[in-house]
Amino acid sequence: MIEPMLDPFDPDSFIVRAQAHILDIEPRIGRTLELPMALNLAQLHEVLQAAFGWTDSHLHQFNIGGLIYGAPEFDEDGLFDSRIFEATEVRMIDLHFPYDPGENPVTILYEYDFGDNWRHLLRLERVQRQEGAKYPRCIAATRSGPPEDVGGTSGYTDFLEAWLDPSHDEHKAMHRWVGRKFHPELCNLDDINKAIAKAMRSSKGGYRFRHARPS
Question: What domains lie within the chain, and their CATH numbers?
């Protein structure tokens, strides 16, 4: 069966492929994500949380060309240095992608947990949509995301030293803390995509926390 050709002038014929990794960690912890053009930044936050195994327990922001996007209600007192623009109002289709694939990609800095200061660099390019594929999805992943509240990149280095060394005083404590399922070098693509799908259902087109029922 011959698949219908996609219209190169139709925005629905394209998706965004995002190469995302956490800065200042080697070997790299990265994800390759494919996103629908209608996805907004609040939904992208949910995708990133699911893809890297974060639990959305801290504040975040997107920095695009020096403008900050996120959830403005978290800065009602105006304590942040920059104005926070509403993340749901910017979609992938609103970004200015070059027509020449050889040109520089769109770059976004995604910051999560201002205490641990996890900075993720996203390089975005527009590519043809695959007929029959469901988006968003993760198509490649390297290494597990760090545990929440581990203390940022330096804290993660200390954690790994204890986690990997059976003779370390904190070895057993670190294993108990993160649980048996954690391994720094492993991640399961199917599990990541199930987490992304669940996050998309819960987000209802925006942020999950805005739809959470009060306890």
Answer: 11-145+187-203 (3.10.290.30), 146-184 (no CATH)
